[in-house]
Amino acid sequence: MGGSRLAPGLTLMVLANRRVLYISYNGMLDPLGQSQVIPYLKELSTLGVRFTLLSYERAQAYGAEGVQRCRSLKEELSQFNIEWHQLRYHQRPSMPATAFDVAAGIRFAGRLVRQDKIELVHARAHIPAVIALNLKRRFGIKMIFDVRGLMAEEYIDAGHWQATGVAARLTKRTESRVLRATDGIVTLTDVLWDEMNRWPDLQARAVAHETIPCCIDQNQFHFDSEARSTRRDQLNVSNRLVLVYSGSVGGWYMTDEMAAMFAALRRQRHDAFFLWLTTGPAQIIESAMRKSGIEPRDYAVRNVQSSDVSSFLSASDVGIAFYRPGISRLGTSPVKVSEYLSCGLPVIINSGIGDTDRVIAREDVGALVRGFNDDEYAKAASTIFGFIDHPEQTRSHAREVGERLFDLRGPGIERYARLYEALLN
Q1: Angle subtended by helix axes 413-424 and 31-45, to nearest 10
Q2: Common-topology check for domains 12-215+408-424 and 225-406
Q3: Bridge partners of residue 51, in order along the sequence
Q4: Which helix (H) or strand (E) holds 56?
Q5: Relative to the CA of 321, which of 143, 182, 260, 270 has its CA 20 to 30 Å away?
Q6: Model pLDDT, residue 2
Q7: Per residue in 67-103, is it b (16+ CB within 10 Å) or e — as a string?
Q8: CATH architecture of the domain covering 12-215+408-424
Q9: How would you classify the pairing of strands 242-246 and 299-302?
Q10: Are 419 and 144 in contact (CB under 8 A)?
């Protein structure tokens, strides 16, 4: 593992042997939870931070295979002085189940604070923040609210909650209490922080803040010319232009609109091919492609291991990501965009998604779609051809931007360490 590159002025002695309780509502056996939490904790532990990790695990963690996986991961984490504890995640009925999980977390975390002499509690997202708020009030310790998005707004935008409903109002009321008390805040985007900074709960008081986008391990995502040749042979795409999408389909992710964008691309480049990398239902993709008049020979759907994603991205020429618009998208930092750039791909994305408008425009690494219509698709296609026509230059520049903005061991660790130092100094 490579060492962290610390920003000038960080005092390692401030972080050495400081005890931090990290609470995540994502399970560590889930690929998402493991990839988004554990790499950060491992890197911060190399700076001397002593972590106690508390996560909520789903049923898979309690079967025979899950128990073995937990045991192996616990041993792996212990090598980094990370002590891992699990509580069971309860899903239904939604609000009572969450209330039960919070109550269980408050009881269990209270014991951990006393036992491990915790000085700071780092709450990843809203539900852990409720637990952290209780711990702060009971024990007088510092807390960080790591805002992974606007929870109420996300459920409202998705159509799951009514804006005036009990769940939304309770979530916003609780969020307000947390913001009035927290010592530190992490946001994924600057545009979300610009918005939150105007909220009454943060007025007239000092709070430490860092914007830390979804970063990735640059060693795992990079362009590989041999992998490009191998994967393109497997896909039988020869010298075709390959558009790639990596991630979930349906819901927040606008599958029909991405298919329509590809159709516009094909009208200008008849050799275009769409590669879908997803664990989602292939039927959603097949339906979207039929609606846009795309033949099966012009696209492929692959369910690939996370370790193979980089090689398929290397086989591609441009990455795409369309998200359903909404106020909650202010807080979105698409990890797939970080992966695309680090593998040397320019990006097509719709506007209004976190800081990506600023990144695309400032860094000149792709095309923004400002409306879901044929004119915007055609303009984006024309823009992207300028990158595809200069592949070596595009790959080099995209990679440099990915390393500078989204390197876990660069801005990711530097900013977390800076926030920890500010609160623990």
Answers
A1: 60
A2: yes
A3: 20, 82
A4: strand 50-57
A5: 270
A6: 41
A7: eeebeebbeebeebbbbbebbebbeeeeeeebeebbe
A8: 3-Layer(aba) Sandwich (3.40)
A9: unpaired
A10: yes
3-class DSSP assignment, residue 215: coil
For 189, residues 6+ apart whose C-beta sits below 8 A from its C-beta are 211, 213, 330, 331, 332, 333, 354, 355
Residues with Cβ within 8 Å of 324's Cβ and at least 6 positions away in sequence, in order, are 157, 158, 251, 252, 253, 254
Supply angle C-alpha 89, 93, 99, rounded to 5.
Answer: 60
The answer on pLDDT for 242 being more than 50 is yes
User: Is the whole-model pTM more than 0.90?
Assistant: yes
Instruction: For 151-236, list the strands marked E by DSSP.
Output: 184-187, 208-211
Superfamily of domain covering 225-406: Glycogen Phosphorylase B; (3.40.50.2000)
- Domain segments of the chain: what residues? 12-215+408-424, 225-406
User: Got the DSSP string for 334-369?
Assistant: -HHHHHHHHTT--EEEESSSTTHHHHHHHHT-EEEE
Alpha helices in 117-150 (DSSP H): 126-139
Nearest to 246 by CA among 276, 272, 218, 220: 276
Q: Which two tokens stand for residue 403?
A: 């390393």
How high does pLDDT run on average in the chain?
94
Confidence of residue 7 (pLDDT cuts 50, 70, 90): very low
What is the C-alpha to C-alpha distance for residues 376 and 382, in angstroms, rounded to an integer?
10
Angle (deg, nearest 10), helices 255-268 and 282-291: 50
Query: Alpha-carbon distance 207 to 203, whole Å?
Result: 10
- The confidence score (pLDDT) of residue 11 equals 54
Asked if pLDDT for residue 179 goes beyond 80, the answer is yes
Cα distance between residue 113 and residue 129, in whole Å? 15
Can you read off the two tokens belonging to residue 90? 């309860």
Instruction: Determine the 3-state secondary structure of 402 from DSSP.
Output: helix
Closest CA to 353 of 320, 323, 319, 384: 323
Mean per-residue pLDDT, 164-193: 96
Strand positions, DSSP E, 225-357: 242-246, 273-277, 299-302, 318-321, 347-350
Tokens found for residue 424? 């623990």
